[in-house]
Amino acid sequence: MQDSIKKSLFVNALLVTTLAPLVALPAMAVASFPFNQSMLLGLAIFAGGVGHVASTACIYSDQSVRAIMQPMKCRFFVLPIAGIVITGIALLWGSAFSVAQTFIAGIFIFHLFWLHFHYQKQNYGLIAFVAASEGNRAPRILSHLLLLPALAGVLAIMPALTQAAMEDESWLEHQQNGLYTAALIVYILGGILLATVVFKHRNAFSKPRMMIFTLASFFFFLPAVTLAHSDYAFWSYALAHGFQYLLMVFTVSRATGKAIKSILAFTVSFIGGGFILHRLAGNQALFVCGILLTWIHFILDAKIWRMNEPGPRKLLKGKFDFLFQS
Hints:
Blueprint: H1 3-30, H2 39-54, H3 63-69, H4 73-93, H5 101-133, H6 141-145, H7 147-166, H8 176-200, H9 208-218, H10 222-226, H11 230-252, H12 256-278, H13 284-304, H14 310-319, H15 321-324
Helix pairs in contact: 1-11, 2-11, 2-12, 4-13, 5-7, 5-9, 5-13, 7-8
Protein backbone atom coordinates (compact mmCIF):
# COMPACT_ATOMS: atom_id res chain seq x y z
CA MET A 1 0.00 0.00 0.00
CA GLN A 2 1.35 3.43 -0.89
CA ASP A 3 2.51 5.63 1.96
CA SER A 4 0.08 8.39 1.00
CA ILE A 5 -2.85 5.97 1.31
CA LYS A 6 -1.55 4.63 4.64
CA LYS A 7 -1.15 8.19 5.85
CA SER A 8 -4.71 9.14 4.92
CA LEU A 9 -6.12 5.97 6.48
CA PHE A 10 -4.22 6.49 9.72
CA VAL A 11 -5.03 10.18 10.11
CA ASN A 12 -8.70 9.58 9.26
CA ALA A 13 -8.83 6.66 11.72
CA LEU A 14 -7.30 8.89 14.38
CA LEU A 15 -9.94 11.52 13.67
CA VAL A 16 -12.77 8.97 13.83
CA THR A 17 -11.56 7.52 17.14
CA THR A 18 -11.53 11.07 18.50
CA LEU A 19 -14.83 12.36 17.18
CA ALA A 20 -17.04 9.25 17.36
CA PRO A 21 -17.25 9.10 21.20
CA LEU A 22 -17.41 12.90 21.45
CA VAL A 23 -20.51 12.88 19.25
CA ALA A 24 -22.16 9.53 20.06
CA LEU A 25 -22.23 9.74 23.87
CA PRO A 26 -23.64 13.29 24.10
CA ALA A 27 -26.25 12.24 21.52
CA MET A 28 -27.22 9.31 23.77
CA ALA A 29 -27.46 11.70 26.71
CA VAL A 30 -29.70 14.09 24.78
CA ALA A 31 -31.89 11.14 23.75
CA SER A 32 -32.12 10.15 27.45
CA PHE A 33 -30.82 6.66 26.74
CA PRO A 34 -30.11 4.92 30.07
CA PHE A 35 -26.35 4.89 30.61
CA ASN A 36 -26.17 1.34 31.98
CA GLN A 37 -28.42 -0.26 29.36
CA SER A 38 -25.96 -0.66 26.49
CA MET A 39 -23.65 -3.70 26.50
CA LEU A 40 -21.71 -2.18 23.59
CA LEU A 41 -21.10 0.99 25.57
CA GLY A 42 -20.02 -1.06 28.57
CA LEU A 43 -17.50 -2.98 26.49
CA ALA A 44 -16.26 0.27 24.94
CA ILE A 45 -15.75 1.79 28.40
CA PHE A 46 -13.94 -1.33 29.59
CA ALA A 47 -11.64 -1.33 26.55
CA GLY A 48 -11.10 2.43 26.33
CA GLY A 49 -10.72 2.84 30.08
CA VAL A 50 -9.02 -0.17 31.65
CA GLY A 51 -7.83 -1.46 28.27
CA HIS A 52 -5.98 1.63 27.16
CA VAL A 53 -4.11 1.90 30.47
CA ALA A 54 -3.31 -1.81 30.37
CA SER A 55 -2.10 -1.53 26.77
CA THR A 56 0.97 0.32 28.09
CA ALA A 57 2.28 -3.20 28.73
CA CYS A 58 2.42 -3.71 24.95
CA ILE A 59 5.37 -1.36 24.57
CA TYR A 60 7.53 -3.76 26.58
CA SER A 61 7.11 -6.42 23.88
CA ASP A 62 9.01 -4.29 21.35
CA GLN A 63 12.81 -4.48 21.56
CA SER A 64 13.31 -1.10 19.86
CA VAL A 65 11.07 0.55 22.47
CA ARG A 66 12.91 -1.21 25.29
CA ALA A 67 16.13 0.33 23.97
CA ILE A 68 14.62 3.76 24.75
CA MET A 69 13.74 2.54 28.24
CA GLN A 70 17.16 1.16 29.18
CA PRO A 71 18.75 4.48 30.33
CA MET A 72 15.67 5.08 32.53
CA LYS A 73 15.41 1.74 34.38
CA CYS A 74 13.90 3.28 37.50
CA ARG A 75 11.05 4.87 35.53
CA PHE A 76 10.31 1.97 33.18
CA PHE A 77 11.11 -1.09 35.27
CA VAL A 78 11.40 -0.40 39.00
CA LEU A 79 8.34 1.87 39.21
CA PRO A 80 5.89 -0.43 37.35
CA ILE A 81 7.05 -3.53 39.24
CA ALA A 82 6.69 -1.70 42.57
CA GLY A 83 3.19 -0.57 41.54
CA ILE A 84 2.16 -4.11 40.63
CA VAL A 85 3.54 -5.54 43.90
CA ILE A 86 1.74 -2.90 45.98
CA THR A 87 -1.48 -3.53 44.07
CA GLY A 88 -1.13 -7.27 44.64
CA ILE A 89 -0.76 -6.66 48.37
CA ALA A 90 -3.84 -4.40 48.32
CA LEU A 91 -5.75 -7.05 46.39
CA LEU A 92 -5.02 -9.66 49.05
CA TRP A 93 -5.13 -7.63 52.25
CA GLY A 94 -6.38 -4.16 51.29
CA SER A 95 -9.91 -4.75 52.56
CA ALA A 96 -8.48 -5.15 56.07
CA PHE A 97 -7.27 -1.54 56.10
CA SER A 98 -9.45 1.52 56.57
CA VAL A 99 -8.34 4.64 54.70
CA ALA A 100 -9.59 8.10 55.72
CA GLN A 101 -12.26 9.39 53.35
CA THR A 102 -10.70 12.85 53.19
CA PHE A 103 -7.40 11.28 52.11
CA ILE A 104 -9.09 9.25 49.38
CA ALA A 105 -11.06 12.27 48.18
CA GLY A 106 -7.91 14.39 48.08
CA ILE A 107 -6.07 11.73 46.08
CA PHE A 108 -9.02 11.41 43.70
CA ILE A 109 -9.34 15.18 43.12
CA PHE A 110 -5.61 15.44 42.42
CA HIS A 111 -6.02 12.45 40.07
CA LEU A 112 -8.77 14.24 38.14
CA PHE A 113 -6.57 17.28 37.53
CA TRP A 114 -3.66 15.12 36.38
CA LEU A 115 -6.01 12.97 34.28
CA HIS A 116 -7.39 15.94 32.33
CA PHE A 117 -3.88 17.35 31.94
CA HIS A 118 -2.76 13.96 30.59
CA TYR A 119 -5.68 13.85 28.14
CA GLN A 120 -4.91 17.26 26.71
CA LYS A 121 -1.15 16.74 26.51
CA GLN A 122 -1.88 13.69 24.36
CA ASN A 123 -4.14 15.83 22.18
CA TYR A 124 -1.39 18.37 21.71
CA GLY A 125 1.04 15.55 20.94
CA LEU A 126 -1.29 14.36 18.18
CA ILE A 127 -1.54 17.89 16.79
CA ALA A 128 2.26 18.12 16.73
CA PHE A 129 2.41 14.65 15.19
CA VAL A 130 -0.02 15.55 12.39
CA ALA A 131 1.72 18.88 11.84
CA ALA A 132 5.11 17.13 11.51
CA SER A 133 3.64 14.69 9.00
CA GLU A 134 2.59 17.71 6.93
CA GLY A 135 6.08 19.25 7.12
CA ASN A 136 4.75 21.83 9.56
CA ARG A 137 5.20 22.76 13.23
CA ALA A 138 2.54 23.41 15.85
CA PRO A 139 3.06 26.70 17.73
CA ARG A 140 4.58 25.88 21.11
CA ILE A 141 2.16 28.18 22.90
CA LEU A 142 -0.65 25.87 21.80
CA SER A 143 0.64 23.25 24.27
CA HIS A 144 -0.08 25.64 27.16
CA LEU A 145 -3.19 27.28 25.72
CA LEU A 146 -5.06 24.00 25.23
CA LEU A 147 -4.76 23.34 28.95
CA LEU A 148 -7.46 25.99 29.53
CA PRO A 149 -10.34 23.89 28.12
CA ALA A 150 -8.93 20.92 30.05
CA LEU A 151 -9.00 23.00 33.24
CA ALA A 152 -12.56 24.09 32.44
CA GLY A 153 -13.57 20.45 31.95
CA VAL A 154 -12.17 19.24 35.26
CA LEU A 155 -13.66 22.18 37.20
CA ALA A 156 -17.09 21.54 35.71
CA ILE A 157 -17.21 17.77 36.21
CA MET A 158 -15.11 17.35 39.36
CA PRO A 159 -18.00 17.62 41.88
CA ALA A 160 -20.12 14.96 40.13
CA LEU A 161 -17.22 12.54 39.68
CA THR A 162 -16.03 13.00 43.26
CA GLN A 163 -19.53 12.40 44.60
CA ALA A 164 -19.79 9.22 42.52
CA ALA A 165 -16.35 7.96 43.55
CA MET A 166 -16.98 8.64 47.24
CA GLU A 167 -20.62 7.46 47.02
CA ASP A 168 -21.62 10.61 48.87
CA GLU A 169 -23.46 13.52 47.23
CA SER A 170 -22.33 15.98 49.89
CA TRP A 171 -18.75 16.17 48.52
CA LEU A 172 -18.11 19.62 46.94
CA GLU A 173 -21.86 20.26 46.99
CA HIS A 174 -21.47 23.85 48.20
CA GLN A 175 -18.59 24.57 45.78
CA GLN A 176 -20.34 23.11 42.71
CA ASN A 177 -21.89 26.33 41.39
CA GLY A 178 -18.71 28.33 41.90
CA LEU A 179 -16.63 25.70 40.16
CA TYR A 180 -19.01 25.62 37.21
CA THR A 181 -18.93 29.42 36.88
CA ALA A 182 -15.13 29.31 36.94
CA ALA A 183 -15.22 26.58 34.28
CA LEU A 184 -17.32 28.73 31.95
CA ILE A 185 -15.00 31.70 32.38
CA VAL A 186 -11.90 29.60 31.73
CA TYR A 187 -13.43 27.94 28.67
CA ILE A 188 -14.52 31.24 27.10
CA LEU A 189 -11.09 32.75 27.83
CA GLY A 190 -9.48 29.72 26.19
CA GLY A 191 -11.63 30.20 23.07
CA ILE A 192 -10.65 33.87 22.77
CA LEU A 193 -6.95 33.12 23.20
CA LEU A 194 -7.09 30.20 20.74
CA ALA A 195 -8.69 32.41 18.09
CA THR A 196 -5.90 34.94 18.67
CA VAL A 197 -3.17 32.31 18.28
CA VAL A 198 -4.73 30.84 15.13
CA PHE A 199 -4.95 34.32 13.58
CA LYS A 200 -1.38 35.17 14.56
CA HIS A 201 0.02 31.86 13.23
CA ARG A 202 -2.21 31.55 10.17
CA ASN A 203 0.45 29.71 8.14
CA ALA A 204 0.74 26.97 10.77
CA PHE A 205 -2.99 26.33 10.58
CA SER A 206 -3.31 26.55 6.79
CA LYS A 207 -3.46 22.75 6.49
CA PRO A 208 -7.03 21.47 7.09
CA ARG A 209 -5.92 18.50 9.20
CA MET A 210 -3.96 20.75 11.53
CA MET A 211 -7.00 22.97 12.05
CA ILE A 212 -9.39 20.05 12.50
CA PHE A 213 -7.29 18.39 15.20
CA THR A 214 -6.78 21.72 16.96
CA LEU A 215 -10.53 22.37 17.06
CA ALA A 216 -11.19 18.79 18.18
CA SER A 217 -8.75 19.32 21.05
CA PHE A 218 -10.43 22.58 22.05
CA PHE A 219 -13.93 21.05 22.01
CA PHE A 220 -12.69 17.83 23.64
CA PHE A 221 -14.00 18.81 27.08
CA LEU A 222 -17.13 20.64 25.95
CA PRO A 223 -19.37 17.73 27.11
CA ALA A 224 -18.12 18.27 30.69
CA VAL A 225 -19.25 21.91 30.53
CA THR A 226 -22.54 21.42 28.66
CA LEU A 227 -23.97 18.01 29.68
CA ALA A 228 -25.88 17.48 32.90
CA HIS A 229 -25.24 13.71 32.73
CA SER A 230 -21.74 13.39 34.15
CA ASP A 231 -21.23 9.75 33.09
CA TYR A 232 -21.92 10.49 29.44
CA ALA A 233 -19.93 13.73 29.65
CA PHE A 234 -16.81 12.15 31.15
CA TRP A 235 -16.75 8.97 29.08
CA SER A 236 -17.26 10.86 25.82
CA TYR A 237 -13.75 12.30 26.03
CA ALA A 238 -12.25 9.51 28.14
CA LEU A 239 -13.11 7.02 25.37
CA ALA A 240 -11.82 9.38 22.70
CA HIS A 241 -8.51 9.53 24.55
CA GLY A 242 -8.40 5.77 25.14
CA PHE A 243 -9.13 4.85 21.53
CA GLN A 244 -6.54 7.35 20.29
CA TYR A 245 -3.97 5.64 22.48
CA LEU A 246 -4.94 2.11 21.43
CA LEU A 247 -4.63 3.11 17.76
CA MET A 248 -1.16 4.54 18.38
CA VAL A 249 0.02 1.52 20.40
CA PHE A 250 -1.13 -1.07 17.89
CA THR A 251 0.26 0.94 14.99
CA VAL A 252 3.64 0.86 16.71
CA SER A 253 3.24 -2.92 16.96
CA ARG A 254 2.00 -3.45 13.42
CA ALA A 255 4.84 -5.81 12.37
CA THR A 256 3.49 -9.39 12.53
CA GLY A 257 5.79 -10.84 15.20
CA LYS A 258 5.62 -7.78 17.40
CA ALA A 259 1.86 -7.51 16.92
CA ILE A 260 1.38 -11.05 18.30
CA LYS A 261 3.53 -10.24 21.34
CA SER A 262 1.64 -6.99 21.86
CA ILE A 263 -1.74 -8.69 21.60
CA LEU A 264 -0.66 -11.27 24.19
CA ALA A 265 0.68 -8.53 26.49
CA PHE A 266 -2.51 -6.52 26.02
CA THR A 267 -4.74 -9.53 26.72
CA VAL A 268 -2.92 -10.46 29.91
CA SER A 269 -2.83 -6.89 31.23
CA PHE A 270 -6.41 -6.23 30.13
CA ILE A 271 -7.79 -9.30 31.90
CA GLY A 272 -5.67 -8.54 34.97
CA GLY A 273 -6.87 -4.96 35.02
CA GLY A 274 -10.45 -6.11 34.62
CA PHE A 275 -10.10 -8.51 37.54
CA ILE A 276 -8.73 -5.71 39.70
CA LEU A 277 -11.56 -3.40 38.61
CA HIS A 278 -14.08 -6.09 39.57
CA ARG A 279 -12.56 -6.28 43.04
CA LEU A 280 -12.46 -2.50 43.60
CA ALA A 281 -15.84 -2.23 45.30
CA GLY A 282 -15.46 -1.86 49.04
CA ASN A 283 -11.66 -2.02 48.98
CA GLN A 284 -10.41 1.48 49.67
CA ALA A 285 -6.73 0.56 49.55
CA LEU A 286 -7.17 -1.08 46.15
CA PHE A 287 -9.08 1.96 44.88
CA VAL A 288 -6.06 4.11 45.73
CA CYS A 289 -3.76 1.54 44.07
CA GLY A 290 -5.86 1.69 40.91
CA ILE A 291 -5.25 5.44 40.80
CA LEU A 292 -1.52 4.94 41.45
CA LEU A 293 -1.26 2.43 38.58
CA THR A 294 -2.90 4.98 36.29
CA TRP A 295 -0.31 7.53 37.41
CA ILE A 296 2.42 5.07 36.41
CA HIS A 297 0.78 4.96 32.97
CA PHE A 298 1.02 8.78 32.87
CA ILE A 299 4.69 8.74 33.86
CA LEU A 300 5.67 6.12 31.29
CA ASP A 301 3.80 7.84 28.47
CA ALA A 302 5.39 11.17 29.26
CA LYS A 303 8.71 9.84 27.93
CA ILE A 304 7.83 7.30 25.24
CA TRP A 305 5.81 9.62 22.98
CA ARG A 306 7.87 12.83 23.22
CA MET A 307 8.80 13.97 19.72
CA ASN A 308 11.03 16.73 21.12
CA GLU A 309 13.54 14.19 22.51
CA PRO A 310 16.02 12.50 20.12
CA GLY A 311 15.43 8.87 21.15
CA PRO A 312 11.62 8.83 21.04
CA ARG A 313 11.61 11.04 17.92
CA LYS A 314 13.82 8.58 16.02
CA LEU A 315 11.73 5.66 17.24
CA LEU A 316 8.37 7.20 16.31
CA LYS A 317 9.55 8.41 12.91
CA GLY A 318 10.66 4.85 12.21
CA LYS A 319 7.42 3.30 13.44
CA PHE A 320 5.26 5.84 11.60
CA ASP A 321 7.52 6.09 8.54
CA PHE A 322 4.51 6.26 6.22
CA LEU A 323 3.56 9.60 7.82
CA PHE A 324 6.92 11.26 7.35
CA GLN A 325 7.82 10.32 3.79
CA SER A 326 8.39 13.44 1.70
